Amino acid sequence: MPKTIAKTSARLVGAATLAAAVPAGAADLHMQITLPEVQVASYYRPYLAAWIEDAATREMQGTVAVWYDTRLRDNLGVGFLRDLRRWWREAGENMSFPADGVSGPTRGPGTHDVVIPGDSGILAGLAPGDYVLAVEVSRENGERELLRAGFSWGAGENDAEIQGSKEIERLAVAVTR
């Protein structure tokens, strides 16, 4: 088990035991991602895919967000999603774009908040248990980075935070009422 997931899991165990049990449908999943300001001659906003995996098996449960250049004519931005290699192999190549409630435009440097309602999409059918929010980012003329932050679904409020090193400055996930 990678160190970042082990550290996150330890934090989650403590948070889950202290929090009151909340039915999974009554909770929301909050993702906060900070994209760094990169000092380069020509900056291109990164493409991003976020999905939920089972913490034990790493089996993908479903995609929760895809950011790509939606303004390119003839939907050409979809072609560059292949650079999000891990996500593309697991789910991307089988998806139709734009994907309702999942896809959106790329975003620039800064902190971005995404709230995924617990009663919709992938979360509506997610069984209580330990999961990982995986976020993969790739930027043209830049690098690729994949971060994973663990969380417990259906066990009450809990959160986790991971620091990135290249294309993601920080990833935070929280389960809230």
Write the layout of secondary structure elements.
Layout: H1 3-18, E1 28-35, E2 47-54, E3 60-68, H2 85-90, E4 103-105, E5 110-116, H3 121-124, E6 129-138, E7 144-153, E8 158-163, E9 170-176
InterPro entries: DUF2271
Protein name: DUF2271 domain-containing protein
Keywords: Signal
Keywords:
globular, 5-stranded mixed sheet, 177 residues, mainly beta, 4-stranded antiparallel sheet, Immunoglobulin-like, disordered N terminus
Could you explain the architecture of this structure?
The chain has about 180 residues and is mostly beta strands. The longest helix is centred in the first third of the chain and has 16 residues. A hairpin with a 6-residue loop joins strand 8 and strand 9. It is built from three helices and nine strands. It has a single domain, classed as Immunoglobulin-like (Sandwich), CATH 2.60.40. The strands form two sheets. The chain has a five-stranded mixed beta sheet. The N terminus is likely disordered. The protein starts with a helix and ends with a strand. This is DUF2271 domain-containing protein. Keywords: Signal. Pfam families: DUF2271.
